[in-house]
Specification:
- 2 copies of one chain form a homodimer.
- The first copy, chain A, is α+β, with helices and mostly antiparallel strands and about 575 residues long.
- The first copy, chain A, has 3 domains: about 45-70 and about 105-235 and about 420-475, Bira Bifunctional Protein, Domain 2 (BirA Bifunctional Protein, domain 2); about 250-400, YbaK/aminoacyl-tRNA synthetase-associated domain (YbaK protein, Alpha-Beta Complex); about 490-585, Rossmann fold.
- Helix content of chain A is about 25%, strand content about 30%.
- The first copy, chain A, contains 14 helices and 31 strands.
- In chain A, the strands form 7 sheets. In chain A, strands 3, 7, 8, 9, 10, 11, 12, 21 and 24 form a 9-stranded mixed β-sheet that branches.
- In chain A, a hairpin with a 4-residue loop joins strand 11 (about 215-220) and strand 12 (about 225-230).
- In chain A, helix 2 (about 40-60) packs across helix 11.
- The longest helix of chain A has 21 residues, at about 165-185.
- The relative contact order of chain A is 0.14.
- The mean pLDDT of chain A is about 95.
- The interface between A and B is large, with 49 and 49 residues.
- Chains A, B: Its main location: cytoplasm.
- Chains A, B: This is Proline--tRNA ligase.
- Chains A, B: Homodimer.
- Chains A, B: One of its GO terms (biological process) is prolyl-tRNA aminoacylation.
């Protein structure tokens, strides 16, 4: 350490919010260059290399082969798949000296597809899974949490190519199994949840989430084994009912009821249900006005009808309306549509106002899957101070589409019938999904099948964020003194700390280091003669190598201390037994 | 090879001019993504990794420590050192979503300087040498020759930091020695030549050139050990002479002598030298008009006086006038300066025209170092059809500065007195130079010295182009059949080729592969059952693994063939001796 390029810091960096960010900077692993962009110091680079090696091992075990694409890619292929536009502001775009358009690639689906198209032509060439470990770029609106959401980050992205759906399933399962082995070796808990494939398109899609209360993703799981992130949760609709025997709708005065609670109260007081059960928020149909901004910048107003006991979940709405961006309608939007009476919006009004793309308003009307034919609702009458009771779906109003935008609540049924779900939070650590033929079709990747017929190749995409995982491991492995690395990714196997000013101690420590290195251990050696034991111990705790050997006063008697960074336990060991003891651990 | 992600190609790529480019694409090592931008296929990635490992080994042996900077860097530090502008069109520039300016770093001097400034504060922290192996970007005007001049390329760049000049010398020599070891291990001939530090600034500067007739750099060397690239060659000026006894200048008619040859002929015919020796081109002072374009786009006309037997070397002129760009003056430039009479330009004219910044023309006049006080010249009179004889430097004309822009010719004296130089060509494979305090001063990197006084740190910079070296190795190691890798960087140690359709042969080959892998060899195994021996041998020759084992018909008798790719020699060997024989080689 007297020569090692490292300076530990006492103070947390001013811009750090999360523990991993604070500790990785203070312990000398990374250093900020710009918002969400970091340099790697020797300690950090060692941990990163160890994670990458584990990923490489398991990719090789899964039969995947490594390639490497440039970060700087020309626009054309991304244009062909629509991603040049779809990625919006997340993409770093630039021009070369000749005015040619380029981007810093956020992922490389297009490039991998074109490479296979370039080289392969027959089903006999397939299956193939190729991957890279590469620095990627996303111009995040709010880069934060250090490496957890950076603008430059290292990812392993793999892509499988098959000529049949069954082949894709097999390639997918091989990568999925490799991910399980990787996270196990990294000592990271994970839950595999169904996911929405998002802007990437595709069919089967699963995320590996590391469950943690501070995670930025919400997922649902049932006792019976169902797990999905909220964006992928699918509502179970009630059965459609016949409405032949239902009573006609009735418009009633409901002054001063802009909220669901007020509406339910007045309905129960003035208009009790014929069957005697009390009205609840779930009986009301809340109509929420959303504004969608499309890729071309155009703005559309959409009204969403959903049970009054649920809010719109904007993350689910983003998926439902992708690639448009979604936000609540503004006052300006309402001003342009005076027919939408705030607090009293309904799909139908006594004044003849009807929502729907084909209607007089032209405003799209979409509903929650719980709105099915024959369900009756208390809802707005599009007239200030009036609601309508018993408005029956399919009889009294219609809709343009069904959308999954309502929040998921604890107790909602798992779609596979495995019982009610609970909600939890996690951080994404991996994503496997079946792209299907989207990219192959857009870019013309076809091969000849057994019968000499051209078939479009089907693809899978498999990503792990290397630098993100490093941060999550740091986030999960620390205490108030500093980091505590799992052995599989620690920057060094052993940290030898020589203390005091006695030259004889340093000579003995030199010998310990030599014997450990001869036994194959990577050793960090604190040989700084003028630094106090307290500072050295503090640095050792901050840096977080899991095994520490203290060579101090007792060394002259042939005794050193073995310090377990995680448990804090210290045991005395004979100098010449250190290597064997550590090997046994 | 039945699963390996590789397809060899029969045809050279249409855009390939040089051998390495053709062969690396045809043999499946790299694949073009855009002009000067390539993807790495599994074979290429393996060779690249081997070169990188050799570089890492020798960096570690030289005490350098590895870090890693992002490619995407903010503008500020590059602005502080002037490089944001100086790099001109070579820099890829871009903006993030907030309009912040960024670049794709061509090198990282600024970032390394700021990192050390961030972490270090005392002379006791120094010396330190840190390096990275990283993908860099330069928007070359004419990317060409495949990896030899790409727009994205991998470089090892190291930087040393010292508190004293003596320390810098030691750090510099350590890197220089590491480079010698690296090139020796890579099997690459090299010449170390003095170099100009160019846009980077600095003092001592040496390039490692690989001598080859197709090199794009010209260098000079003497028998006595002097070597320099032509940009760095320094002219030895003749001694100044007294001009007391020299005859006065004489304007003579020299009609139709726009060329030096015509002028010398007419001078010898009509105006023989008083001393009887014939006039030669070296006695004439040729005045060449150059146009300099500065960073701010402004254009300046400069007249350069040099002996008539030499041309202006534009590469040397670029260095002399850096950072301005240099080109010969155009007709338009001449039109703006009617006082410059094409073919008859002189520093002095009977009509009173005198060149020089302080003169009536205001046009800077600079001269070759051979123009010293007391030298007499035949030169133009700035009058159509007239020259002047015996115009004496210092007596009859003066100049604003002396510049090294004349071409170097074989036989010119080495500046260190080690004899005449000869010219040769080479390719740059490494560059070591002393930056000195330029970056530290611009960015405020100071440390406290022994006396508690702040001193500015002095730096060195050391670069090796990893991908460029790979291409040069390919360029130097091939024949008409394909590549022939040196063992130190070959993608595999051994290529086992099983031939024919007999399953027993493939079983024996499986065993050979197993035993070779058990002995620690990396093996590429051509196990393709339906491919003809001819195609397999052709692929093996194209791919260029240096040792090939052919398992064919004789395998049933326990005999295989060992094929040396470089010599073409094939010898029969017993199956169970293959591993030992290869180990012995």
């Amino acid at each position: 350490m007297s020569n090692f390029f490292l300076r530990t810091l006492r103070e947390d960096p001013a811009d750090a919010e999360v523990t991993s960010h604070k500790l990785l900077v203070r312990a000398g692993y990374i250093r900020r260059q710009a918002a969400g962009i970091f340099a790697w110091l020797p300690l950090g680079l060692r941990v990163k290399a160890k994670i990458e090696q584990i990923v490489r091992d398991e990719m090789a075990a899964a039969g995947a082969q490594e390639v490497h694409f440039p970060a700087l890619m020309p626009r054309e292929a991304y244009e062909a798949t629509g991603r040049w536009d779809e990625y919006g502001d997340l993409l770093f775009r630039l021009q070369d000296r000749k005015g040619g358009d380029y981007l810093l690639a956020p992922t490389h689906e297009e490039a991998f597809t074109l490479l296979v198209k370039d080289l392969y032509s027959s089903y006999k060439d397939l299956p193939i899974t190729i991957y890279q470990i590469q620095d990627k770029y996303r111009d995040e609106a709010r880069p934060r949490a250090g490496l957890l959401r950076g603008r430059e980050f290292t990812m392993k992205d793999a892509y499988s190519f098959d000529s049949s759906d069954a082949g894709l399933d097999a390639s997918y399962m091989a990568q999925r199994a490799a991910y399980e082995r990787i996270f196990t070796r990294l000592g990271l808990d994970y839950v595999i949840v169904q996911a929405d494939a998002g802007a990437m398109g595709g069919s089967r899609s699963e995320e590996f989430l590391h469950p943690t209360p501070v995670g930025e993703d919400t997922f649902v799981q049932s006792q019976g084994g169902y797990a999905a992130n909220v964006e992928a949760y699918v509502t179970t609709p009630p059965p459609a009912r016949s409405y032949e025997k239902l009573t006609p709708q009735e418009v009633v005065d409901t002054p001063n009821t802009p909220t669901i609670e007020a509406l339910v109260a007045i309905a129960n007081e003035k208009h009790p249900r014929p069957d005697g059960r009390a009205w609840t928020a779930a009986d009301t149909l809340k109509n929420v006005v959303l504004a969608l901004t499309d890729l071309d910048g155009s703005r559309e107003i959409v009204v969403v009808g959903l049970p009054g006991d649920r809010e719109v979940d904007l993350k689910r709405a983003e998926v439902a309306f992708a690639p448009a961006e979604v936000e609540p309608a503004t006052e300006a939007d309402f001003a342009k549509h005076p027919g939408l009476v705030k607090g009293y919006i309904g799909p139908w009004s006594p004044a003849g106002q009807v929502l729907g793309e084909e209607s007089s308003t032209g405003i799209r009307y979409v509903v929650d899957p719980r709105v099915v034919d024959g369900t009756g609702w208390v809802t707005g009458a599009n007239v200030e101070g009036k609601h309508v009771l018993g408005l029956v779906a399919g009889r009294d109003f219609s809709w343009d589409a069904t959308v999954e935008v309502a929040e998921v609540l604890p107790g909602d049924p798992a779609p596979d019938g495995s019982g009610p779900v609970e909600l939890a939070r996690g951080m994404e650590i991996g994503h496997v999904f079946q792209l299907g033929r989207k990219y192959a079709e857009a870019l013309g990747l076809k091969v000849l099948d057994e019968n000499g017929k051209l078939v479009t190749v089907t693809m899978g995409s498999y990503g792990i964020g290397v630098t993100r995982i490093l941060a999550i491991i740091a986030e999960e492995n620390n205490d108030d003194k500093g980091l505590i690395w799992p052995e599989s990714v620690a920057p060094f196997d052993v940290h030898v700390v020589a203390t005091g000013k006695d030259a004889a101690v340093y000579e003995i420590a030199d010998g310990v280091v030599d014997s450990l290195e001869a036994s194959g251990f990577d050793v960090l050696y604190d040989d700084r003669p003028k630094v106090s034991p307290g500072v050295k111990f503090g640095d050792a705790e901050l840096i977080g190598v899991p095994r520490i050997v203290i060579v101090g006063r007792d060394a002259a008697d042939g005794v050193v201390e073995l310090w377990d960074r995680r448990t804090g336990e210290r045991v005395k060991v004979a100098v010449d037994e250190v290597a064997d003891r550590l090997a046994a651990l």
